[in-house]
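re: that complex we talked abt at group meeting.

here r the seqs, copy pasted straight from the sheet so there may be weird spacing, ignore it
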Amino acid sequence: MQWRDFFELEMLALVSRHVTTTLAYIAAIWVLGEAAKFIVDPILAPVINWAETVIGAACILRGVIIMLWELYDVTHKKISGHRIVLAG
Amino acid sequence: MMLRTKKSAVIGSSWLDSWLATFPGYLFTVVAAIPVAALGWALIAKGFDRENVFIFVVPLAVLLGFCLEASVKAIFNQKPRKFQRTYASHVQYAYLGTAPIKSFQVGLLGESANHNAGPVELALLGKTATLAMTTNTFSRTA
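got the structure back, here u go
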């Protein structure tokens, strides 16, 4: 396998992993928020909407930060002390 | 071959394994974001601009999430404490020979003040006695 194939596969796996995790969390938070709106007093609906927005945005920001971190990590990976140069 | 990167990514394992390793990390951010969202709501109620509060609150939640993750991982990854081997009995034996043992034996008969030996002293006495017996110099007078 060429380094470029390895690199692209790794990138694809990494990005898709974080995107799907973020989407899963946003969906779960949205579902929980909607359920909470049914249970609690309707006057608290704006608070729940705000919390959903903040949590969702935090998940997205975390996803972006971790993804960039791992991308850096993958491209600068060292095996037994030697840095792999990812060239095509 | 499994090559673990600094974070959750693992080269060589299945996509599902890596995905499952990625998943719990986000939970820390979600947990941290709940009180931070409450703080943001309080700031909005105090009259701060909604957009400004949002810009302030979201990175704060992420930062707290990272701190929480690091703390929890540090707590769970700490190694169990091992007993430290000491050479106190060797020092006692080198300095005092078998005198502490003899003194304790006398103390058992009620003739010395050494009968109030605490657990550490008893342990030292026991170790010193073992040392004395294994080195076969029990008859040595100190």
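couple things i noticed - Chain B touches chain A at residues 3, 5-9, 11, 15, 18-19, 22-23, 25-26, 29-30, 32-34, 36-38, 40-41, 44, 54, 57-59, 61-62, 65-66 (CB under 8 Å). The helical segments of chain B are 15-45, 50-77, 88-96, 99-108, 119-134.
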